[in-house]
Amino acid sequence: MDEQMAALADEISAADGVTVLTGAGVSNASGVPTFRGEEGIWNNEFDPADFRMDRFERDPAGFWTDRLELHERMFGDVTGPNDAHRALARLEDLGVVDVVVTQNTDGLHAEAGTNRLIELHGNNARSVCVECGESVPTETALDDVRAGNSPPSCPVVGCTGHLKPDVVLFGERLPGGAYDSARRMAWESDVFIVVGSSLTVVPASTLPEEAAERGQLAIFDTGETEKDHLAHYLVRGDATETLPALVEAVQARLGREADTRGVENVTQEG
Ligand SMILES: [Zn+2]
């Protein structure tokens, strides 16, 4: 087994607090396209300016028409959680990972079984009324748009508000509660693991900096990130392979611990 992976497995098994931050790289293998980089949809297919908060406020009908197209491109081919999502859920089950903080809005961590989850940028499967806060499945809102009713309106009788995807749009502030919790977790963690995020988007990009001041920082990515210079562990490769390898290393360690305890018990009973 890879020495670095074994060392990290030891580190997280012994740690009091372990927080994971995930980005788009975790969901690539599930058919969700990346936003940034040369292949990213913002560079080639869509203009981020069309999806800004000020565009939504100025022209909600046009926003939703474009959003329908974006939604179909982003989520049309999604195949469900992949081995990286499942590995993180398993690390929670094993009592090793305390919380997953994600920049993704695809809901795949929850689907894979992660319970303690902070969705920093919201969840694309929900839409909310900007007036009364009523939550509606985004599919319902999109059906309205498909039927020519754009922008989709709130289903609550007497409410005249428009629906908005329950995600943080460009130019919109992060929900204070989610970011504050994520920051607190980063600060309190002995080990902070970043998976599949280029760490270029403020303010999520500042979490690893704060975490590295306090504890150990591990970065899992296929390529270089902005914060590699701060990392104590750099694991290169596809997260659908590297995270299952980490699970295996943790299980091997937990197995050794159980064996040791078993031997001690036998000795005591004898
Ligand atoms: Zn409403």
Characterization of the model:
It is a single chain. With 270 residues, this protein is an alpha/beta fold. The protein has two domains: 1-31 and 81-121 and 174-270, TPP-binding domain (Rossmann fold), CATH 3.40.50; 33-77 and 123-167, SIR2/SIRT2 'Small Domain'. 43% of the residues lie in helices and 16% in strands. The chain is built from ten helices and nine strands. The chain has helices at residues 3-14, 41-44, 53-58, 60-75, 83-93, 108-112, 138-146, 176-188, 206-214, 239-269, and strands at residues 18-22, 99-102, 117-119, 122-129, 135-137, 163-167, 191-195, 216-221, 233-236. The strands form two sheets. A six-stranded parallel sheet has the order 3-2-1-7-8-9, with helices on both faces. It has a three-stranded antiparallel sheet with strand order 5-4-6. Helix 9 links the parallel strand 7 and strand 8. Helix 1 packs across helix 10. The radius of gyration is 21 Å and the shape is elongated.
